[in-house]
């Protein structure tokens, strides 16, 4: 099977580009890789050896932008948002190297042929972490490995609601992620490698925040859940504790905020 996949890739690379667009090649390879009885409407079954339970979705972030605006009571967070899960239906037992990438798909929220979690940012003014947001259009991909593990990565920029006033010198803003429709019995979220590098704030983001008149005191990842009238939902949060530089004023509000 491994040789067959390489043959398909080689065949495509020599095919006249006029007959195969990138999207067409991607769709054709997906058809050859994904089982014919695969149904993306249903969440992945339990991983072999585990009892029936929710799909475990692990989260990591690389933050490249932080900007606060007390006038609009919001914190802008931008960077890369990554989700990891396992879909045993996509596993290729005949491939020896289970860490080998067998399929890569672009635009993970547009006509995706495999199941993806319906993740969204709860307190974001501009809605879902998805291709619906202009800032993330065409900036995502899915990568499937031979063991059925899936990585979904997207470039995001969320405007988070964060109650504050211009007089505040210290605030805590939160980036909160849940499933839009799946309860905790179906999807369970957690920070990937919770004690390691599941969340990284770049020097660039720190500098942008400093230029805005603020500094980051700490960022704390939290695995949690929320109880609603319709049920219990899994949730992960990233809490930013921010402090205004003494005597500093925020930059004038712009349309970018």
From TrEMBL:
Q: Signal peptide position in this chain?
A: 1-17
The keyword Signal belongs to this UniProt entry's keyword annotation: yes
A GO CC term assigned to this protein in UniProt: membrane
Q: Spell out the PANTHER family in the cross-references.
A: NEUROTRANSMITTER GATED ION CHANNEL (PTHR18945)
Q: Name one GO molecular function term.
A: extracellular ligand-gated monoatomic ion channel activity
Domain spans labelled Neurotransmitter-gated ion-channel ligand-binding: 33-242
Question: InterPro entries from the xrefs?
Answer: Neur_chan_lig-bd (IPR006202), Neur_chan_lig-bd_sf (IPR036734), Neur_channel (IPR006201)
**Can you say what this protein is called?**
Neurotransmitter-gated ion-channel ligand-binding domain-containing protein
Task: Recite the UniProt keywords alphabetically.
Answer: Signal
